[in-house]
């Protein structure tokens, strides 16, 4: 890479600070706006992880358009004209301030809401986000033309941009969200946006002054010496189609891998709050490192270490995952992800071109990011019934290791044929061997042996990647076979699976039953024998809190109007009586299809065939119901293991009691592995002066499919709940009081404060 003569170059340090501060502020605003607006939109779509992924596609798409604009502006217009056009764009963007959702924003209930979500984001934040997204390439391009002694290589400023992204990302859940409400967050973001515009104006002033009144054509450099250097640099960085496709692949795979891993760990490892922050933090950190001065030393180390860490990752994350707790899985996946993106992004940084092609380089990077996001959001959910895009991108990342040679010869053919034969043998064995699971241990040992052999192929990216892919394919097939999955499908709201399992009945005999999973969380189960199929199980069992509630009020609930938010397998419906009116609320149409299919679960068809069904977000659906309509309202809405936060707020509780009769009861399911939901409910009940009882139920006997579960019941008057408290059916107690956090509202929630 050529260098300008430093004797005549500007060494002004404040100049670096101005441009770095502009990029830092821009990236910070971008990564505060993403969770901020995601939080505004999540309540409308039940808190699904797909909301975040769809938002990411929007951000990546606008980022690409911003980079395209910066590329067009810097290559087609003189520098004075660039400043004039960009100033006009910034002034137009002020029309979108302050940030707010469009009026009467209601998502569709009968179709996939992805396109509705994208359109809503475009209307609400499209213009300011577009301006923010143009900053990184445009400001770096301007810096390349201001005559500073580092202008020949402005890529190090990209580290400032990604540092801003990283700090903003981490500060949001731990600093901004716990201390500032949504309304103030939007106001402060608007103020930050105005500050960014002033910083951009400062950069524009420096560029304008450097032009000395001349309308310099883009791509031109002031001195003949610099012109000669630019020609040499262009020759050295010939932008062939192969080079541009290589850039595209190196940026696309990490982008897709990021979303795939986020979805995978939220679905298949643990639905832990804010878990998505960790992969995104590692993703941004990789950019900070590879575009720093240290990449020349760090990149070869990453290339060497990646195969070493891949061995335990493949062995324990895919082949034999039964031996590790979820946090160990998480560490394995995060390490494998970090090495993959470091290798890809390290190659990308190593191949960065002369500043003449800076905007082209960033344009291809942003386009690749957008393609990766679109593949995960628009293609994968319709092609795959689980998160298979994640292992596919792991294999693709291995293909992009340095040393890839596609010259057709016997060595390359062997690298392709051997993994292909391995997959074919696995498919034939699955189709012809009657009880393949009896060889489970032998197959697992064989796959682990093959994993060790793949290390020998680390210098041959094709063989290394394809052999790893064959092992992952066979491991996934083996575990799919062992899980006895009857049905698995993927919707906007997650991966749903119906599985057949075996229990030991009361007589000590094996008995088959069906269970429903959302991700890794069981959402219900049903025994199949005719005389047992109407018995509610798991969280809704007769010995448990819900069974106790229905038994205690058995004498006066004959004509109750009952609403249930969250369908699951439909077990609660088997408490229904003929004179009662039941209304079931469910956000995911796929759950309705599964619960209504007697081949999987027959609770609904046997116990409440005439129950009214409402599809859509619970709060939006309940708003349409008459006031003082329900005698009992059961809140059982979960996305995997998480209750959507907007169903826990003070305003949500006020809505529920508006729809309940004066003597009505609210029952809240709060079983959770990671969150202490009782803190939120206790504080909000106290704020609304509601009576409440809690039972953290533990089965006293070993009854099949009766599990530990936590429930809270609330009423306007304590005497409504007094029969339940005095009954000997269970250990109902008054809710404990908490004083260490504020009530949750639609404007303020703080997940960190309720982590167990």
TrEMBL record:
Keyword Transmembrane helix: yes
Residues spanning the membrane: 12-38, 50-70, 82-101, 113-134, 155-175, 187-208, 247-266, 272-291, 303-320, 326-346, 358-376, 382-400, 412-433, 439-457, 464-482
Xref: CDD domains: AdoMet_MTases
Superkingdom of the organism of origin: Bacteria
Keyword set, alphabetical order: Membrane, Polyamine biosynthesis, Transmembrane, Transmembrane helix
Gene Ontology terms: biological process: polyamine biosynthetic process
InterPro entries: MFS_trans_sf, SAM-dependent_MTases_sf
Record protein name field: Fused MFS/spermidine synthase
Organism: Candidatus Methylobacter titanis
């Amino acid at each position: 890479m050529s260098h300008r003569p430093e004797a005549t170059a500007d060494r002004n340090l404040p100049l670096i600070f101005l441009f770095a501060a502009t990029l830092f502020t821009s990236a910070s605003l971008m990564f505060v706006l993403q969770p901020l607006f995601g939080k505004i939109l999540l309540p409308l779509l039940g808190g699904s992880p797909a909301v975040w992924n769809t938002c990411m596609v929007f951000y990546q798409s606008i980022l690409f358009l911003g980079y395209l604009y910066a590329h067009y502006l810097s290559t087609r217009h003189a520098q004075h004209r660039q400043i004039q056009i960009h100033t006009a764009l910034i002034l137009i963007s002020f029309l979108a301030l302050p940030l707010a959702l469009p009026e009467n924003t209601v998502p569709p209930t009968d179709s996939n809401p992805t396109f509705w979500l994208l359109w809503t984001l475009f209307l609400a934040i499209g213009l300011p986000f577009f301006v923010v997204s143009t900053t990184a390439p445009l400001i770096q391009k301007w810096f390349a033309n201001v005559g500073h002694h580092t202008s020949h290589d402005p890529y190090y400023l990209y580290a400032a941009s990604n540092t801003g992204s990283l700090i903003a990302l981490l500060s949001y859940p731990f600093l901004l969200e716990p201390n500032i409400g949504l309304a103030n967050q939007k106001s402060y973001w608007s103020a930050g946006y105005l500050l960014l515009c002033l910083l951009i104006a400062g950069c524009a002033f420096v560029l304008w002054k450097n032009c000395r009144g001349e309308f310099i054509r883009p791509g031109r450099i002031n001195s003949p010496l610099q012109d000669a250097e630019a020609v040499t640099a262009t020759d050295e960085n010939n932008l062939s189609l192969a080079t541009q496709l290589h850039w595209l692949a190196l940026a696309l795979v990490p982008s897709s891998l990021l979303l795939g891993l986020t979805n995978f760990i939220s679905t298949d490892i643990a639905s832990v709050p804010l878990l998505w922050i960790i992969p995104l933090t590692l993703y941004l950190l990789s950019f900070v490192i590879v575009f720093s001065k240290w990449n020349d030393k760090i990149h070869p180390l990453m290339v060497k270490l990646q195969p070493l860490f891949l061995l335990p990752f493949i062995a324990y994350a895919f082949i034999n995952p039964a031996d590790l707790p979820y946090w160990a899985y998480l560490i394995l996946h995060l390490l494998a992800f970090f090495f993959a993106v470091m290798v890809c992004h390290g190659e990308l940084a190593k191949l960065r071109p002369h500043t003449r092609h800076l905007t082209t380089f960033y344009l291809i990077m942003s386009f690749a990011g957008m393609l990766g996001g679109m593949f995960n959001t628009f293609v994968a959910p319709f092609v795959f019934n689980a998160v298979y895009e994640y292992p596919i991108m792991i294999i693709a990342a291995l293909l992009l290791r340095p040393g890839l040679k596609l010259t057709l010869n016997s060595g390359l053919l062997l690298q392709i044929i051997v993994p292909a034969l391995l997959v074919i043998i696995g498919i034939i064995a699955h189709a012809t061997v009657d009880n393949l699971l009896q060889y489970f241990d032998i197959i697992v040992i064989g796959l682990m042996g093959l994993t060790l052999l793949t290390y020998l192929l680390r210098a041959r990216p094709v063989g290394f990647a394809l052999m790893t892919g064959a092992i992952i394919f066979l491991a996934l097939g083996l575990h799919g076979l062992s899980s006895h999955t009857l049905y698995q499908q993927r919707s906007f709201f997650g991966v749903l699976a119906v599985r057949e399992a075996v229990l030991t009945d009361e007589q000590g005999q094996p008995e088959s039953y069906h269970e429903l999973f959302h991700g890794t969380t069981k959402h219900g189960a049903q025994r199949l024998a005719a005389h047992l199929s109407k018995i509610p199980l798991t969280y809704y069992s007769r010995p448990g809190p819900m069974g106790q509630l229905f038994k205690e009020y058995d004498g006066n609930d004959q004509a109750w109007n009952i609403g249930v938010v969250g369908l699951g397998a439909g077990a609660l419906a088997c408490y229904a009586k003929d004179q009662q009116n039941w209304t079931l609320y469910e956000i995911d149409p796929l759950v309705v299809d599964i619960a209504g299919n007697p081949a999987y679960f027959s609770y609904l068809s046997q116990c409440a065939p005439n129950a009214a069904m409402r599809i859509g977000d619970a709060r939006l659906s309940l708003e349409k119901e008459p006031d003082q309509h329900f005698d009992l309202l059961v809140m059982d809405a979960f996305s995997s293991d998480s209750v959507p936060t907007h169903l826990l707020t003070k305003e949500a509780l006020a809505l529920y009691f508006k729809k309940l009769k004066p003597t009505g009861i609210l029952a809240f399911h709060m079983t959770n592995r990671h969150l202490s939901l009782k803190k939120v409910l206790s504080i909000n009940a106290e704020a609304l002066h509601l009576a409440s009882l809690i039972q953290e139920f533990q089965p006293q006997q070993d009854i099949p499919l009766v599990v530990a579960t936590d429930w809270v019941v609330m009423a306007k008057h304590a005497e409504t709940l007094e029969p339940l408290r005095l009954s000997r059916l269970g250990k109902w107690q008054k809710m404990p009081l908490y004083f260490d956090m504020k009530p949750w509202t639609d404007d303020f929630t703080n997940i960190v404060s309720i982590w167990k």
